[in-house]
Design brief:
By secondary structure, the chain is an alpha/beta fold. The chain has helices spanning 2-16, 38-43, 59-66, 93-104, 138-154, 172-176, 178-191, 206-209, 232-239, 250-255, 268-279, 285-302, and strands at residues 26-28, 35-37, 73-74, 110-117, 120-127, 158-161, 196-200, 218-221, 261-262. It has a seven-stranded mixed beta sheet, sandwiched between helices.
């Protein structure tokens, strides 16, 4: 079948003058059903222009958008055992890893980088949801810990962008062990007197919520993001009650004191820079400009 798909069909199409149409040229808004051209969606940071619905944003695109001029140093992916439990369900775990790596062009779900945002040097850690649902396994846990260690070594803050379905079942208890390990890394950063900000994206669930995702000094959430430990359906089946409308969304959590603010994606880089300047006791850029102007005028007057 691969030989037919990869060789015969392209040869026939070339002879007949047919052109393959790329998939996903048009993206459907989950809220309104509006069809948006993929290039327009990418240019608008994966936010539907009309409805303002925040789609899932690829990890590489988020880092490029976050850092000044899109420039950052990518942190290396630590080497870890690939399939310690030799797990297999309907498919081998190693095959699932290979498929996800081809799909995302990443080694695992975590992508981390160091650079400047609004002139503030920081380490950013992003989940790639398209890599097995952003699940937390050994590789992800080790990458997160290394990112915290780099932030401590560079004496700079760390910003986390979780997007995950929780722990990775194919790694069993080894996946759950990443919860206390990453929690210790958060505490190490705080003991070093450095800020830790979490930007909660859709979805942030399971063991990720139960560990580093809810331990920030400041919790920012994107509009409409699902933030929870157990899903709505599981809770309803357990307590046998209907949950409120919009339950577990970022807006609901804001109303109930679980997050500090809900911020549109376009405004997040500027907001992070302003808050980190305050938390790091750095001079404000505008104040520097004003002070510089006053000093210049004073020097001119003295002459």
């Amino acid at each position: 079948m691969n030989w037919i798909t990869n060789y015969v069909r392209p040869r026939i199409n070339s002879m007949l003058g047919r052109r393959e149409v790329p998939e996903n040229l048009w993206i459907k808004c989950p809220e309104t059903g509006e069809m948006v051209f993929h290039k327009d969606l990418e240019e608008n940071k994966w936010v539907i222009p009309a409805s303002g619905y925040h789609m899932k944003m690829p990890a590489k695109a988020r880092l490029a958008d976050l850092f000044d001029d899109g420039y950052y140093e990518a942190l290396p992916q630590p080497k870890v055992p690939q399939d310690p439990l030799r797990f297999r369900d309907s498919k081998k775990y190693t095959d699932r890893l290979k498929d996800s790596r081809v799909k995302t062009e990443q080694e695992d779900t975590i992508l981390a980088g160091i650079g400047s945002v609004g002139g503030v040097r920081l380490v950013a850690v992003v989940h790639e949801f398209n890599f097995m649902g952003g699940s937390l396994g050994i590789a992800a846990g080790e990458a997160i810990i290394k990112a915290f260690e780099r932030a401590i070594a560079e004496h700079c803050p760390l910003v986390m962008f979780p997007a995950s379905g929780g722990a990775r079942m194919q790694e069993g208890i080894l996946s759950l062990m990443q919860l206390p390990r990453t929690t210790v890394a958060v505490n190490m950063l705080k003991e070093a007197g450095l800020p830790y900000i979490v930007v909660l994206t859709n979805p942030t669930t399971g063991g990720v919520t139960a560990s580093y995702a809810m331990l920030g000094d400041l919790h920012i959430a994107e509009p409409g993001a699902e933030i929870c430990f157990a899903g709505k359906r599981v809770i309803e089946q357990t307590i046998r009650e209907k949950l409120p409308e919009g339950f577990q969304t970022s807006e609901y959590l804001l109303d109930h004191g679980m997050v500090d603010m809900v911020v549109k994606r376009h405004d997040i880089p500027g907001l992070l820079a302003r808050n980190l300047r305050i938390m790091m006791k750095m001079p404000d850029q505008l104040s520097d400009m004003l002070d510089g102007g006053v000093r210049t005028q004073t020097a001119i007057a003295a002459q």
